[in-house]
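Interim report, section 4.2 (structural modelling).
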Amino acid sequence: MRKVLMLILDGLGDRPCRGLGWLTPLQAAEIPSLDLMASKGLTGLLHPVDVGVPPGSDTGHLSIFGYDVVREYPGRGVLEALGEGVDLGQGVAFRANFATVKQVNGKLVVIDRRAGRISGEDAEELAKEIEEMDLLNGEVKAEFRHTLEHRGFLVLRGEGLHPEVTDADPHEVGYPVIEPQPLVSRAEKTAKALSEFLREAYMRLKDHEVNRRRESEGKPPANIVLPRGGSSKVSLESFQDRWGFRPAAVAAGPLYKGVARALGFDVYHPPGATGLPDSDFDAKVSKAIDLLEEYDFVFVHVKGTDTASHKRDPELKKRVIERVDLALERLVDPPEDLLIVVTGDHSTPSELGKHTGDPVPILFYGKGLRRDDVPNFDEMSVILGALGHLKGRDVMPLVLNLSDRALEYGLRPTSKALRYVPKASDLKPFRV
Amino acid sequence: MRKVLMLILDGLGDRPCRGLGWLTPLQAAEIPSLDLMASKGLTGLLHPVDVGVPPGSDTGHLSIFGYDVVREYPGRGVLEALGEGVDLGQGVAFRANFATVKQVNGKLVVIDRRAGRISGEDAEELAKEIEEMDLLNGEVKAEFRHTLEHRGFLVLRGEGLHPEVTDADPHEVGYPVIEPQPLVSRAEKTAKALSEFLREAYMRLKDHEVNRRRESEGKPPANIVLPRGGSSKVSLESFQDRWGFRPAAVAAGPLYKGVARALGFDVYHPPGATGLPDSDFDAKVSKAIDLLEEYDFVFVHVKGTDTASHKRDPELKKRVIERVDLALERLVDPPEDLLIVVTGDHSTPSELGKHTGDPVPILFYGKGLRRDDVPNFDEMSVILGALGHLKGRDVMPLVLNLSDRALEYGLRPTSKALRYVPKASDLKPFRV
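Predicted structure of the assembly:
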């Protein structure tokens, strides 16, 4: 049985970029380590959720980890909160980004969904203005927490809250902020509280001195936060119960820590890992290799590829990929008991700047496995790979199979054995 | 966001034809426009319903348009009636072709399921003989309408009718016409009425002077019509509600107009479009380009490829494909905001003369999208395409994705947003 190192490069897939001579960043990048793994490994195209469906980063990861996002998706907010170690209790949580709006006839039209990717002290100071709020005459308490760059999350606490409300975020610039609407009648109070939060946040932020200064510097003001992805406390089957691995995650971005915690991974954030394009990928890969002593499944997340894509900077994405490749050099001759999996959670074409349903390349690499004739790791080369087209739900069965852990279909020492080989210690011995 | 032009060539797929040097009509045809689109686009093989399943033209189209033909198929008759603008009300409808039968020991053995592809005045005159009929002592009124060539449909109106009866059409020559049987007990009256209709139609047609003349000319007489595909009034979710497009159809064949109307398309029939191999494809493509000003999804149907296949004329099918290709010349350098999709609704091998479950080639073409290395648009070349093997249900998600309309999975501005990006006008703006 092999241990598994799974590297997920966020938003890895792309489309041909004008600025890169109509190559994708992966095609344009110098990536000798990944190319070597592709040439000696098994490759294919992965549809993380389904054909043509653009995954969110949370749903993309959940699907790759073998969770059915139609039945099991808990919503974004709770995953963000978990990423920061916040216990929701009976509250509801929302992902909530700083954004820039412009008031037009009483509507707030979204100018920039990320307020110029505000970060650092500006974001911290503005976050303080709205970090606590009493809503509906004190019946509901709001708590806003800033995380990374323009990102944050909002928790509402109080009696009778329910997460099924519409997103305030219209998800496209040029459209007005949406009035929160209950999607089920039990969510009426939540929608009202959220509406009051929006109004109050806009009032507190629009004339804030930080925003006045940003405007004088030609930067977009962060004059609102836009809640989306309402959700309540999660109870997903753990990754260990489902697949039999003892899992660890190496990640810096809050959402990815949240996804990992929701599935029962132990989460590590090594020094130098920033969740940004400048992250120390060497530190992350080193940490992962160390963790493989103690764990048998280590997930490494790289956010920089997606951040570069959302910044519409194909050249930066290419450089991030090249720096990751450099950090992988020590894995091109892996131990015999290691299976390496490299893929993305979705495509983010870097001249479009948003997630698409284009498939991402995936490779499985380990000694003694089959290999195909694909010499390069990129979106086009892997079309001819041995794995063909995979869905997210195919990945964990492949991981079990190629790590020699999958049990013959039809055998059933426990009811869960269709999913993994139980260790002897999991089973009750027969006694005479 | 792009607009979409979807061209469906009916029965496009084929098998190698002896008469074409063992090439398929698509392989044999000179199609510079389609080849150029394939070489710069994304290609694959489409199973319109499922692997190995021969679709009907109605189910093939419905599946490609994103409707589940297992759960949502309304039956053929109602689609034919809708194609002619006939409101069924509480009635039931059947597709009903003119056919040739021979009386053998009291059975009516089918000699030709299309009565020599009867058309024109012969068909019109015979149709008049059976266009109205009182059945079951006046309790049920029958209305037969001739449409294109040998085709027509039958509507039964009256109390207590139900469409779930067996087809009278045996679907193969050499077999006897089938006695209509109720498939559910509520359909007993319908089966009885249909049985009386069959008997009466045969009586009125068998010695008709038109048929006597046809026989003297060595043509098969149209001495019966064979009802099949019983169905009642349709209530499918509209294409616009399901996918967010404002759709139009350019079609001449009644069934395709019916499918489009059932899904809420506005239907256009330009002058010169005949639904036959001689149709003016240039007029259809021109109309489609005009409609793209007003609509954001335009479906163009070409029937001639299927008609040539059923006539077992691969050479004619090749010529139809070449004439369609000529009409596509003006689209090889499309506007940046246009996605072009070309495929078929099923294969009709033209030396076999009937629908098969062989997959059909599909291509997506638009500027800035990924492309694969496939240089030709035909059944064999696209095997190495980037799209791999698709099912009908994958097509609309791909259309949404490649027209940049798909929303990230997990986002939820409205309950329908998992399927398309709602327009701002669908949502209530927040007001300060």
